[in-house]
Amino acid sequence: MSHLKLAFLLGITVALGPLALDAYLPAFPSIADALGIPHADVGLTLSAYVTTLGLAQLVGGPLSDRYGRRPILLGGLAVFAVAGVMISLADTLSDMVIWRVVQGVGGAFCAVSVPAIVRDQVSGQEAARLFGLIGLIMFIAPAAAPSLGALMLTMGDWHSIFLMLAGYAVFLAVALQSFLFPKLAPRPKATTPVRTLVTNYMLVLRHKTTMRFVGIQVMCFSTMLLFITHSSFIYQEWFGLSNSMFSMLFAANIILMALLNMANRPLLRRFSSVLLLRAQVTLQFLALICLVVAVSLGGSLWAVAPFIIATIGWQGAIVPNNMANALEFFPHLGGTAAALLGASQFTIAGGISALSSFIGGESLQAIVLTMLACSTCAVILALGAPKAVERELDKAT
Fold this sequence. Notes:
Blueprint: H1 3-14, H2 16-22, H3 28-35, H4 43-55, H5 57-67, H6 69-88, H7 93-121, H8 124-138, H9 140-155, H10 159-180, H11 194-205, H12 208-238, H13 243-267, H14 273-296, H15 301-313, H16 315-327, H17 334-358, H18 364-384, H19 386-396
Protein name: Bcr/CflA family efflux transporter
Family: Belongs to the major facilitator superfamily. Bcr/CmlA family.
Domain Major facilitator superfamily (MFS) profile: 1-389
C-alpha cells in the first residue's frame, strides 16, 4: 500500500478523536441550559472522555500487540458508536459523563492502534514523515468540527452531534475493513503469556530516552487540551463571540497546525527530528510567554487570539516528530509503547484539564498561566539532554 493511501485511511481514523473532542464545543451553552447545570460543569464530560481515552489505551495497546490491530480497532469503533447513541439520549450530567467514559474506551482502542500500525510499517525519519502526512490529512477534522457542531445545532440540537459521531464510527469500520486491513501484511501473533505483556510496560518505563519523549508529549498536549477545554469560555463568554466567530477562530488554529506540519516535512530531509522538536517546543513556549503578557495587560481579542493560534499551531509540527522518536526503540512492541504514550498524555492532560475547571476555570489569566507552566516543563525536557538523545536515536537507526 502506498504511503499516501495508508496515511489517508489512518488519518480519517485518527480524526475520530478530534471530532469527539471538538464537535460539541459550540454546544456547551446549550447542553448547560438543557441539563440545568453551570457552563463550567459541561467541561467534565470532556475531561471524563480524555482521561478514559488515556487509561484504556493501557489495555488496548498490549491486546493489539498480542491479537492484532484489526480486532482491537474494529471493536473500539463499535463501542464508540454505541456510546455515541447513548450520549444522545442522556438527560442528566451523570448519564452523559458515564457514556462519555464508555466512548473513551472505544476511542482509546482506535487511538492506540493507529501509531502501532505506522510503527509496523516504517521507522525513523520515514515514520516522522508518515506521521506528519497522517496529521496533515486529519487536520480537516478539528478545523471543521466546531463548524460542523454549529451546523448541527442550527438543524437540530446537541443530541444530533453525538449521533453524527456514532455514524462516523460506523463509516470508519466499513472503510477500514474494506480498504485497509486486506492490504496490510499480517503480523505474527504474539505467543508470550499475559505476565510478559504486563512486564513489557517496564521495558518502556525504564527507557529514559523514550520517557523523555513521553514527557514532552504529555506537557505539549496538556497545553493544547487546556485551551480546548476552556475555548468556549474564552471566546464565547470572556470575549462574547458568536458560534460562527468562535468556529472561525478555532479553525485558524488548525490551519496553522497544517501549515507548520507541511513545513516540517521537507525540513526532515535536512535536519534530525530531535533537533526540529527542540526548536518547535521552544517556539511554542515563546508564543505562550507573549500570550501571558497580552492577557496580563488586559489585551483585546485581537491582541490575545494571535498568540493562542501560534501556541496551538506549533502542535502540528511537534506531534509527528515526537511520536516517531518515542516509538523508535520498540519495533516489536509498537502497541505497548503507543499505549503508554497515549495513556500518559490523555490521563495526565485530562487530570490537569479537570483540575483547571475547578481552580481558576473562570479566569483567563489562570488558564494561560497553567498553559505556560506545562510548556515550561516541555522545554526543560526537550533541552535537558540533547546529545544523549541523539546518540540513542543514531544507535536505533
